[in-house]
Amino acid sequence: MHRQTIVAALLSAGTALAAPRPQASTTSAAPGATATIKCPIVFDGRVPEDYVADPTKFDTYATNKIFNPDYVKGNDLKWSKILKFPTGDPSRFDAGGYRSLEVTISDKSIFQKQNGFRRAGLQFLQDAADGPGMKGVKTLHFSVKQDATRSLNLTHEFLNVWHEAADYSSNQIQFQTGQLIGKSASDKNNFKVLDRNGKSLYSVAMDNTKWQNFAITLNYEKNQVQIYYSTGNDALKSVAGPTSADLSGGGQFQLGILRKPTGSSDVVNSGYHQKNLNEGQVYGGLFLEDSANNCVSL
Ligand SMILES: *[C@@H]1O[C@H](CO)[C@@H](O)[C@H](O)[C@H]1NC(C)=O
Prior knowledge:
This protein has about 300 residues and is mainly β. It has helices at about 1-10, 50-55, 80; strands at about 40-45, 85, 100-105, 120, 135-145, 155-165, 170-180, 190-195, 200-205, 210-220, 225-230, 235-245, 250-260, 280-290. It contains 3 helices and 14 strands.
């Protein structure tokens, strides 16, 4: 709390700090994160230092107060083994000592009997199919960074962040990368935000070194979506919308990796993945905020 208050005071002291500044090049404790969250947090997925010191905290309901410890992951894997904690500059909304986390997948990332997928997806602990995450106006924040030692094979289709309808029949919003099955390979290096019908709302090239910061405002009352984006420590800017999108159907958020197979018409249950799979996606600044009265932290 104390550190956040100081950062907030500094930010309100003048506009100089709002200007883009170079990212710190060291991996020391010096925080590179600069942004403050100004709207009420509904779900907080930011990772405090004590979870990094003892990742087994992610494994049980008794100790994991951030994410659902049991879902959605390989049956025989624990989150303490799936998650890695990269050192290096924190993302901009991890000011106050929060840490990045990397979701990884391997040959063992098979959830239930879904042999076609390799997946590891975090769900906010407090999220529920009919909970506050699917009412009113909410903004989901997430920053992503690439790990050169666990790069994604973009010949495959990846689902990275999405809101899945309560009946599992569709995702109201989906943030993806790689070659989408049945679509052109030309944008396989892009992150893409799609609506539930697969219509592209925004697309931007994956950056292999910088943090890429996204925020998606979901207006459940008007069925509209607005997308914000920046890189590094730059403030978010609106890049798409508000645009109409059917957000009905409740459900939950998921953040991580769902890797679809190639060579299959039944992607849930069968298909091809290379062996000795070792891929990861780094996340930072995960939270859902209340955007009533147009409040969005930029
Ligand atoms: C990437 O995926 C494609 C399609 O499954 C596969 O042919 C290729 O071997 C994979 N690349 C690596 C480096 O494993």
